[in-house]
């Protein structure tokens, strides 16, 4: 089939080969899910949104929205055997825009993700070059580093180049192997850091912050942040998991796999919280420190450890970089696959062209934390622009569109057939899942989106994001 031929990229081939085994699929899906979202973003969002209450709402979003959407994405992908845009298009060209919106999300996420990936890369090396020597200066050093106009750009370009190398030429075997070693290592290290963090005097306040919800701090924004984070962290709302599902063999139980991936992703996020917050409180740091949180708190804990700290720190940031890499490769691949499939480009030019544009976006993002701090797009700097646009608008709306598509346009019997593997396995919660996807999730996301828009400071940014979606929808036939 033409479709298969067009998908001949090495990464995809690698994944397709591995899809034969259940572990291969789970590792790939979990590799995409577990990334900066869990270790960098989840803790700082928790800090900014008041702790426990945010976590409770986040877990609610994961269980009732994220898991259901993941099952739906797997089902649509495997049913159609097509990647996101093709899957929607094969139903009706009026739906093409929903897939294209996903591609746009991937593109914009890659407008800031490699910046942070570059920070992780830099910190592997900085661990050895005296970063931990002056624990009191770690926070200032981070601020100076990301605000610099040259150094972070170099690391970002190197990080992006690794992505390009993998997606263009495919050393997926290498990255997968590295992932298989480093991801468990990341787990172990997070546990080590958590134990250390918990043993610090005064750590109890951190646990309280995490697990004693104070609902008085909850606003519409908290729900929007939690929902956006659930989508971001689980790699949902832009067709990533549709694509992954399309490579899955017919024997796999979709709900079980979705549950495993979701649990892996959530456990890493919670572990990161438990590793960081007790130390944040023990050291008297600011929980709402924003994007710098993990880059300041983790090194401070490692500095406390003495001699071995340097090594732990280097491995920690290496593992973080690898976790980020397995995610950003999947994001780059979404855009590249679209250009190959729908725009008939060859793989290499698609990868290089995409990466160059992403690099430009990333340069703007990085500089917006320093030299270009004064330059605002619709009220925010470039970094926040890409972050807010995707996380608060595109992913949630993308998820809502998928839920509406699945609930109202795909035949119920087809879904049942797909989720029970043609009736050979049982999925006892099918009816509950169906009601969630068809009625509850679209309404819920609608309410949260409206609440978020009403309350957000960057109204013009919200309107801009929604406008993009409307324009895409109007011209869906032509996409
Ligand atoms: N989930 C990844 C993380 O937590 C980021 C990511 C990869 C992503 N692929 C995605 C987010 C697709 C949204 C959609 O870091």
In brief:
The protein has 479 residues and is mostly helical. Helices cover 76% and strands 0% of the residues.
Task: Provide an overview of this structure.
The structure is a single chain. Helices cover 76% and strands 0% of the residues. The protein has a single domain (21-478), classed as Hydantoin permease (Orthogonal Bundle), CATH 1.10.4160. It has 479 residues and is an all-alpha fold. The chain has helices at residues 2-6, 10-19, 22-33, 36-48, 52-80, 84-91, 96-109, 113-126, 138-147, 151-169, 172-199, 204-211, 220-233, 240-246, 254-282, 293-304, 309-343, 347-367, 382-409, 412-419, 430-455, 459-474. Helix 5 (52-80) packs across helix 21, helix 7 (96-109) crosses helix 22 (459-474) and helix 19 runs antiparallel to helix 21 (430-455). The chain has 22 helices and no strands. Tryptophan is lined by residues 32-33, 35-38, 109, 232-233, 235, 238, 240, 327, 330-331, 395.
Task: Offer a few descriptive terms.
single chain; Hydantoin permease; 76% helix; binds tryptophan
What is the overall number of helices?
22
Category from helices, strands and their pairing: mainly alpha
Provide mean pLDDT, rounded: 88
What is the H-and-E element order?
HHHHHHHHHHHHHHHHHHHHHH
Anisotropy-based shape: globular
Number of strands: 0
Q: Could you tell me the CATH topology label.
A: Hydantoin permease
Unreliable parts:
1-18
Bound ligand species: tryptophan
CATH class: Mainly Alpha
| CATH architectural type | Orthogonal Bundle
The Cα radius of gyration reads: 21 Å
Tell me the count of domains: 1
Q: What is the distance, rounded to the nearest whole angstrom, between the alpha carbons of the first and last residues?
A: 22 Å
What can be said about the biggest beta sheet?
A: none
Q: What proportion strand?
A: under 5%
The share of residues in helices is: over 70%
């Amino acid at each position: 089939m033409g479709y298969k031929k067009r998908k001949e990229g090495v990464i995809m081939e690698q994944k397709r080969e591995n899809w034969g085994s259940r572990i291969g699929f789970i590792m790939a899906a979990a590799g995409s899910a577990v990334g900066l979202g869990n270790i960098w973003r989840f803790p700082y969002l928790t800090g900014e949104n008041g702790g426990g209450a945010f976590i409770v709402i986040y877990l609610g979003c994961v269980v009732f929205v994220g898991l259901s959407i993941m099952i739906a994405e797997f089902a649509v992908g495997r049913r159609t055997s097509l990647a996101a845009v093709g899957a929607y298009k094969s139903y009706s060209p009026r739906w093409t825009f929903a897939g294209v919106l996903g591609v746009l999300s991937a593109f914009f996420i890659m407008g800031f993700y490699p910046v942070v990936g570059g920070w992780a890369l830099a910190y592997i090396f900085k661990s050895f070059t005296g970063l931990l020597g002056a624990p009191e200066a770690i926070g200032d050093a981070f601020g100076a580093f990301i605000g610099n106009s040259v150094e972070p750009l170099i690391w970002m370009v190197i990080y992006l180049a690794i992505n390009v190398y993998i997606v263009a030429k495919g050393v997926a075997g290498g990255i997968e192997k590295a992932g298989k070693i480093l991801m468990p290592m990341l787990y172990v290290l997070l546990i080590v850091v958590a134990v250390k963090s918990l043993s610090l005097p005064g750590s109890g306040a951190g646990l309280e912050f995490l697990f004693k919800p104070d609902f008085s701090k909850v606003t519409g924004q908290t729900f929007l942040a939690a929902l956006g984070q659930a989508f971001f962290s689980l790699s949902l709302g832009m067709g990533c998991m549709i694509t992954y599902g399309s490579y899955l063999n017919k024997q796999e139980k979709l709900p079980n796999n979705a549950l495993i991936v979701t649990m892996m992703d959530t456990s890493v996020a919670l572990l990161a919280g438990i590793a960081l917050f007790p130390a944040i409180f023990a050291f008297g740091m600011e929980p709402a420190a924003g994007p710098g949180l993990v880059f300041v708190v983790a090194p401070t804990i490692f500095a406390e450890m003495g001699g071995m700290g340097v090594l732990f720190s280097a491995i920690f940031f290496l593992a973080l970089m690898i976790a980020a890499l397995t995610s950003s490769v999947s994001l780059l691949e979404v855009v590249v696959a679209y250009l190959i499939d729908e725009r008939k480009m060859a793989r290499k030019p698609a990868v290089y062209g995409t990466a160059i544009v992403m690099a430009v976006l990333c340069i703007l993002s990085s500089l917006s934390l320093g030299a270009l701090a004064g330059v605002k797009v619709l009220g925010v700097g470039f970094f926040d622009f890409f972050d807010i646009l995707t996380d608060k608008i595109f992913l949630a709306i993308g998820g809502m569109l998928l839920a509406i598509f699945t609930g109202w346009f795909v035949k119920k019997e087809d879904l049942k057939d797909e989720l029970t593997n043609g009736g050979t396995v049982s999925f006892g919660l099918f009816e509950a899942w169906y009601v969630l996807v068809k009625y509850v999730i679209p309404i819920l996301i609608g309410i949260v989106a409206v609440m978020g828009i009403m309350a957000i400071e960057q109204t013009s940014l919200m309107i801009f994001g929604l406008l993009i979606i409307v324009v895409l929808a109007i011209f869906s036939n032509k996409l």
